[in-house]
Each structure stands twice: as structure tokens, then as C-alpha cells.
Amino acid sequence: MKLLATLAVLLVLGCGGDDDPAVDGGRVDGSVADGSVADGASFDAFAPDASEAPDAAVDAALPVDGGTATDATVGVDVPDAEAATCAAPCDAPPGPCFEATGLCVAGTCEYAERAGSCDDGNPCTTGDMCVEGGCVGTPVVCDAPPGACFEAAGVCVAGACEYGERAGSCDDGNPCTTGDVCVEGGCVGTPVVCDAPPGSCFEAAGVCVAGACEYAERAGSCDDGDACTVEDMCVEGGCVGTPLRCDTPPAPCLDVTGACEAGACVTVTRRDGTSCEGGACLGGVCAQALRGVVQVVAGQMHTCARLFGGEVRCWGRNAFGQLGDGTTEERRAPTRVIALPPALALSAGGQSTCAIVDSGEVYCWGSNAEGQLGTGDTDDRSSPTLVLNETGTAPLTNVEKILVGTAHTCARLTSGQVRCWGHNQWGQVGDGTVTRRTRPTAVLEPGGTGPLTSIADLFLGSRHACGLTTTGALLCWGANGSGALGDGTTTPRLLPVPISLNDVTQLRGGGSHTCARLVTGRMMCWGANSSGQLGDGTTSGPELSPVEVYASGVAETSAGLNAHTCARFEDGSVRCWGLNSDGQVGDGTTVSPRLTGRLVGGLEEPAELATGFAHSCARVRGGELRCWGDNGQGQLGDGTSSRRTSPVAVLDP
Hints:
1 helix; rod-shaped; 38% strand; 4-stranded antiparallel β-sheet
């Protein structure tokens, strides 16, 4: 009906005159003159009101069965609102989430929504999907920077992620670089330098492969880092050397163990005193014998020697400074006495030593507990100190002979007088008293009225003294408990008393006995004899008067500070007797006592004897020294503390 009505209207309108305002040049608003409907035109505004439409139908005027209507249309249906049509085909959906083809409804194209993927037109989204007619996409996430030198989060621009550059360290992904840093968006590293080969048998420069340095092997000599190998050579990348041989001692007093440490063969020092190339080992060195000795003296447990030129050396016990080296350290080999002018004569006693120098003055050192150093006090001295005169105002001068006992000292002056000082319990100072003297005191004549004079020689024992006058008379004083004075009594003598013994040329006092050599070479001894120290073949006694030991042939006698005695004979032999518990007799044994003289071997041309408490020494050819006996304090001077029952050389360290 709508179609029919439309056609009728067109027919009616098409018959309008030129004066009809609805006609303009054969064209009606909203229509085309040839009867076709203009695009998008609507006739709703021109439809006649329904009440004005003729009741009569115009069906007869309509084409039948698809025929064409003619201009003579009889009736027209009045068009209604539903009869409006869309001006264009419904193929322009309002968005990608509507069907491409819509339906015209009441002149309006209507499109059905659709589901599924879509394109929201934003290149910075992904996974666009239709949701209630709208195209919804997921924003692009910029979290994959193009390199280590860009920020981790970027921004999407026109569909592409853009990242800001960053500075600092990075990883360029190359294991053969180090210290990687960002430079203008690029990660730049320093190539690994391969200059530390794994051993001396590899080339110095290598190449880096997969982060590790590889070095080519080399041939030739090398250093295996082991100081105990020699002739090192490269073998298959390893440095192989020949072990150092340690089978030859490097020095006479060193033995090798066969082992090597730090490139040197391990050595063992031979025991001090072991013989070596004409000398004896001392501290790993082959020391030769001390030579140039012109005098030897023995104290209780120390020994001293005066060398050619006046130098003095001492060794042994030094607890009181009796060695004179400025210390109190024990010395097992000779050590030089310090601060002493060239000595002319020397003497050693219990724990002290004294020397006369060219000026006629006396220097003493060591123990001074009884004032035996003559310094006016009782302080020990470890280096030489001048002996003062009787008043303490100046040094003692004009001394020709000095002798040291156990704890007292005596000097013979050029005037023939004698001065003594130190311990005086038994009158050994000879001044008629038992008062200790810390400075030299004049020995009085037998009557005690004035100084003793005309003394040609002086001799000292452990606790007594004797003087030989210019007329050959022998006078003695001091301790006499065992008859050491030889006056037929055991009474101590505070003043000199005459001894009935003529022709004495030498006298030596021991601990409690005395021996003398006479002009004829005869030897006489007296005093204590409990250890056979008198040499008469017995241990009877004490002998209060001299007894003969040898009838002739004696060149020198020496009485020890304890209980042994030695004698040097004109034929060059030396014999000793008495106590021998430390080998002080020198016969190669410790059989004790020896009641008669035992030959001491190994002494070449002996020239002088010295006996201490339990050791003995002899000066021999070449100015060398041989000592034997007790050596617990190093008093034998062979570098050891081993007891010697036969003579050993005193060494020159």
C-alpha cells in the first residue's frame, strides 16, 4: 500500500502546473520528475492527512503482477511514518564492533553489535576486543629495552617502544672484557689482558677464550720455583728440575743431612772441640789454637793469658766479671780484656784477676767482696780498675810483681816492700791484724815494728803468702790450719815467720798446701795431703814441715787451688798428682787420687804451668796453650764445657 500511495502522489504531483509552488522546473522537493526517489529524500512532510484521503481505493490504477503504473492513477494510499526509507545503503557501521551491514529502521540504519577482535585505531594497544560495541585494547607494555644501557621501562610512541639511555656499569655479554660501562647507549668493555701465564713454561702473552686466558706452551730452560732443584727445563708445560745434591759438607765443622731447605743443604754443626784441619771446631768454624801466649795464669774456674804485645785474654766463669770483658757472661773461648793498657805481668786467683802495666800501676777486676781489688770499696768490677794506694788518693805505683789468692792480693814493690789487701781472717794481709783491707796495706816485718823489706820474690797460696828475701830466707804468713806455712805448726800467722828451708828459687801455694823448687831442682811440699797432693805416695798428714817429692830435675812447680799439684821437668815432661775426680791430673783418667806423679801426654815443649781449682794448663811450643780437667764453666778454652782428662788446645775464636 505504501508503494501504491507513493506512486499516486508522484502522479498527482507530476500533473502540477507551472504555478504550483511545489514544482520547480519539473522537480518536486524530495523527488525526481521521472518518478524516481531522490537519494535520502523523505516524503513524510508531504503526505496528506489521512482524513483527507479518498475512501475509494485506487487498486485498479496500480499495476498488476508487476506491471507498470500509468499516469492515470485513480487513487493513492496516504503514506505513514513507517513508510520512510533510508537515504543510503546501511553499510557504514558506526564502529568496528558493529556488523558491516545494517537494517534501515524508520529511516535510520541500525547495526547489530558484534563480538571478537577489532582494531581500536591505537597502535599503542594490543589484543583489541569488542566489548558492548566498543573496541577495547591492552596498552603496549614497554619492558624489553634494546640493550643493557637503556632504562628498563619505556614509552610507546606511534606503536613503537622508546627507551631512555642510562649510564653506569653494564654487561656487554662478552666474557673477555672487564669494566663494562654504558657509553651513548652502548655497553663498552675493556678487553681482558692475558699476561699472567700459569707457569714459566708458558708464553708470557695469551689469548682470552670464553672468558679464560689460554697460553701456549714453550720449551727451554725455566724456573720451577724450587730453590732446591737445578737445571730446570720445560717438559709438556711443566718445569722439571733435578734435586740439589746435599752429600758434601760445605765446611770442616759442618756436616750435611742430605736435605735441602730454601736452596741450601741443611747442615749440622759439629760439636765444639771436635778436631778439624789442625784446629778444633768452635761455633761451626774450624778455629786454630790461640798463639803468641807469653804467660798463662789460672783462677778458681777461669783462665787468662797474656799475649805478645801485652794483650790479655780470659775465659771460663765470669759471674763476678773476672774475665774483664765488661760482662758477667760465661766464655768458653778466650775473650779480650777491655780498657786495659798493655800488660807486663798477670795473676789470677779465686774469682778475680790483676795485671801490672808499663806505668808500674796495677789494674784488677772481678769479685771484690773482701776488697781484694784494692779500690777502697767492695764493689765487683767487670772491667779493669786501678788499684789505689794506701790512702786512696792515687793509684798504687812501682809494682814489680802481683799475685792473687782466693780473696786477697799482694804486690811486691820496686823498693822490696810488700803490700797486701782483701780478706784477712787468717792474717794473710800480714799487717798483724785480722781486719779486712780494701786498700793496699804494708806487710810488716816479723816483729811488727815496720814494713817488711828486702823481699826479692813473692809467692801466694789460697789463704797465705810467702816472701823470699834477698839473703835467701823464706818468710810466710796467713792461714796455717793444715801446716801450709811449713813452720811446724798449725797456728795462723798474722805477721811473717821464718821457714826453715834454704835455697828456694820458686814457691807455689795451693788450697792448703805449698810446694817449693830448690836451686838444685829438688822439690819439697808440705801441708794438707788428704788427696795425695804432696806427691809422697801417701795420704798421711798433714805434713807440718817440708817433705821431699822429687830429688832433682824439677824446672817448675805449680800447686792447685784445691788438692792437686803439677811439676814441669827439665827433660820437657809434665807430671801431676793428687785429686783427679775431674781429670785435672791429665793422665787420661779420672782415677782419684793419684798419689805420685802421672805423666801428662800431648805437651810439646812445655814452658809454663798454671793450676786452678780443678783444672790445669801448660804453655807449649809456639806460644800455644793446652788445658785439661774440669771444664764446667769453659775454663779450658776449647769452646766446650766438656771435662777433658787429656790436654786440649785453647782456641782462638
